Amino acid sequence: MMLQGLLALAHAASLAQPCLLTRHSTTLHALNDGQVIENVAVDVTSGAAISVHGYKRVTIRNVEITFGPNATGIEFGGADDLMIVNASLRLVGAPTATGALPSASALAITGSGSANVRINRVRAEGCSSGVYLVQCPWAHVSNIEGHNMRGARATGRVADSSANRAHCTRKVPSDRCGCCC
Questions:
Q1: Is pTM, for the whole model, over 0.85?
Q2: pLDDT at 93
Q3: Among residues 77, 80, 82, which one has the least CA distance to residue 37?
Q4: What is the Cα–Cα distance from 2 to 14, expressed in whole angstroms?
Q5: What whole-number distance in Å separates Cα of residue 118 and Cα of residue 105?
Q6: Please, which residues bridge with residue 144 across strands?
Q7: Torsion (CA) 150, 132, 172, 15 in degrees, nearest 10
Q8: H/E/C letters for each residue in 103-138?
């Protein structure tokens, strides 16, 4: 009985511990179907912080991403059943003044040709767009928060999709613009 109490106490203590993020300064690439990329902080100045191309059922969770104006947070293609949850993405050096960003390519999350994508609990800051999907049927995007997002034509979006039957719920509008899906 005492051992069970100690195990329960140890388990409760482990739940209270903060999550330590492993830091990376180069792109993380998915390398397998079913891969889990989690508990990482990625800082890149070009390319994508996390890239998933041609792999299915990949999960990206509990990530903190900072990227420069010539980079992208998360990019994917041909990644059916991808799940992104609990992600914070921030464009470094984004101007705080009004007006458009110099480039439309500073996207927090961009994906194409991927069915049944699930994106939930994402915070994007300073980006040209938060979530941008092209040909991603049956995508489900929810709980997206955007701050200071201004596309190259001052039309930044929290979430934007040309997907067939995309389902978007509970988006928090950007400080500077509306949102659509």
A1: no
A2: 77
A3: 82
A4: 18
A5: 22
A6: 122
A7: -120
A8: CCCCEEEEEECCCCCEEEEEEEECCCEEEEEECCCC
Measure the CA–CA gap between 90 and 146, rounded to whole angstroms.
10
Q: Which two tokens stand for residue 109?
A: 């999350």
* Rounded Cα gap, residues 130 and 153, in angstroms: 15
Distance CA 95, CA 73 (A): 18
pLDDT band at 155 (very low <50, low <70, confident <90, very high): very low
Query: What is the distance between the alpha carbons of residues 158 and 174, in angstroms, rounded to a whole number?
Result: 6
Give 62: exposed, middle or buried? Use CB within 10 Å, 0-12, 13-18, 19+: middle
Supply the pLDDT for residue 33: 97
CA torsion sign for 89, 97, 141, 31 is negative
pLDDT tens-digit series, residues 7-21: 444 444 444 455 567
List alpha helices for the chain, DSSP H. Answer: 2-16
Distance CA 171, CA 157 (A): 10
pLDDT at 27 exceeding the cut of 90: yes
Residues 79 and 104 sit within 8 Å (Cβ to Cβ)? no
- Residue with the larger pLDDT of the pair 58 and 128: 58
